[in-house]
Amino acid sequence: MNMIAQMVKRCLPRPCLAAAPVTVVAVLLACTAPAVAANQIYWGNLNGDSISYANLDDSGGGGQLLNINDSSNTVNYPSEVALDPAANTIWWANDINNPISYVNLDGTGNGQLNVSGSSPLYPDGVAVDPAANKVYWTNHGANTIS
Amino acid sequence: MTGRIYWANLGNNTISYANLDGSGAGGELDTLGATLSRPEGPALLVAPSGTGAPTVTGAPVVGSTLGCSGATWAVDVPEASFYQAPENLSYSWTLNGVSIPGATASALTASSPGNYACQATATNHAGSATQTSTTYAVHLLTTTTLLAASPNPSPAGEQVTYTATVSPAPDGGTVTFTADGLPIPGCEALGLDATTGVSTWQMTYGAAGTHYIQAYFSGDAAFAASQSSVLSQTVNSSPGGAVTGNAKPSCTLTSRNATRNGELSVSVRCNQPASILLTGRITVTSQAKAGKRDQPKKTTLVKLASRHTSVTQGKTANLTVKLPKSALDALRAGARETAALTLSVSNKNGTSHTSTTIKPLELATR
């Protein structure tokens, strides 16, 4: 499956799968990282189940990297985000169903961290240590750091 | 302290900012197109920022491999949720300020002299930044040219070989020899052996004297030009005198028309020093004796040869050729003979021939 098809599948709200191509394009654009590089701010929407961004220069340019309707469905009450620009990745913790998730900053590829051996419980803020190849997060349900 | 601080407003679904230096200037970020639904914990991603320009490394001579290294970039500040590390690096090169097409690696082979500079560009999702090195001068590879002559000193008329050796052996260029400061026709822009860097030139001098020879290497795209020191070539007079001009030697051959105990004497006189070789044949024909019945003729060919002999210009050289005993006996028995001689004359200008038919031999012993 090529990249566009993957993104359409990932970004298209399920009720719209049979919609006209115009609808598909609109959703695709809304879910794709901006084509023109710019300094940006990223955040998680606790209630919106999405990861959003906007330009730092007050020019708008906002959009969503992922939302709950994505097929991977890994955005569930996200809160704080952390970046690993060298790996082109943004990380966050999902407060509800526990996994630690990521998506590439260019909107391609996403997934969940293998957390075997740890005990995430209502994870919250995340921090990335690329040099050590580790992701840390706080468990506000257990008052621990994993 | 300069800069801004950003925060997410969970209560009103906005992103706000204000100056870090306490001067206010706050506001709400334009987030048009983005979802804001109880946002939390924002993080900033900005384009890489250079903190140290790269430097060009490598030997500063043509043909060496140059490197572009040492560029440094601002690092992430995760405790401030501020990120700026490069995702990847790319490179480009200029030569004398002009971009080198296709030079996109961190290493480059310097194919020509000039001032090189490299540019390192760091890129992440937010943008890119480029840092440029200072220029790095690359020079042609220095060469040396040595000149030797063999033999030196040399006798007039003998070939002298001049050998110019350029080191290190260049991959191109030519060598020009000069004599007494002037180019020598036909000895300009001679090729070199690519392995040894050697170029040779031969010369035969006709007269004694001293010649001042020099070799010049032209240089090429990678190797610098160089010249030898002046070599003094001494040419001494040859024992037979000096060969002059380019004409072949000319000689006269004179037979004395006499034999003495079967010896044929001839004289040779030449206009130039030369090496001569006398050859010829005598045809001895038996005749019927007087008062006898005619008898069939009997012919005997006698070949003659003298050794190579050197002659001096303007002086007469006497040669003696001894007749074979069989020819001498035939002559004594009344045979008749015809004889022809050929003189071959050689020097550096070439070889010429002269022939003569000698009169009937007179045997002194008859």
Notes on the protein architecture:
The complex is a heterodimer of chains A (146) and B (366). Chain A has helices at residues 3-11, 21-30; strands at residues 40-45, 50-55, 63-67, 78-84, 89-94, 100-104, 110-112, 123-129, 134-139, 144-145. Chain A is mainly β. Chain A has a single domain, classed as TolB, C-terminal domain (Neuraminidase), CATH 2.120.10. In chain A, the strands form three sheets. In chain A, strands 4-5-6-7 form a four-stranded antiparallel beta sheet, with no helix packed on it. In chain A, strands 1-2-3 form a three-stranded antiparallel beta sheet, with no helix packed on it. Chain A has a three-stranded antiparallel beta sheet with strand order 8-9-10, with no helix packed on it. Chain B has four domains: 4-42, no CATH class; 50-138, Immunoglobulins (Immunoglobulin-like); 144-236, Sandwich (Immunoglobulin-like); 251-358, Immunoglobulin-like (Sandwich). The longest helix of chain B is centred in the last third of the chain and has 8 residues, at 325-332. Chain B is rod-shaped. Chains A and B meet through strand 1, strand 2, strand 3, strand 4 and strand 8 of A and strand 4 of B. Strand 1 of chain A pairs antiparallel with strand 4 of chain B, so a sheet runs across the interface.
Strand order of the largest sheet of chain A: 4-5-6-7
- Taking all residues together, what is the mean pLDDT of chain B? 83
Can you identify the CATH class of chain A? Answer: Mainly Beta
State the CATH topology of the largest domain in chain B. Answer: Immunoglobulin-like
**What structural class should be given to the helix and strand makeup of chain B?**
mainly beta
* Bulk shape of chain B: rod-shaped
Would you count the extended β strands of chain B for me? 32
Approximate strand percentage of chain A: 35-45%
Unreliable residue runs of chain A: 1-34
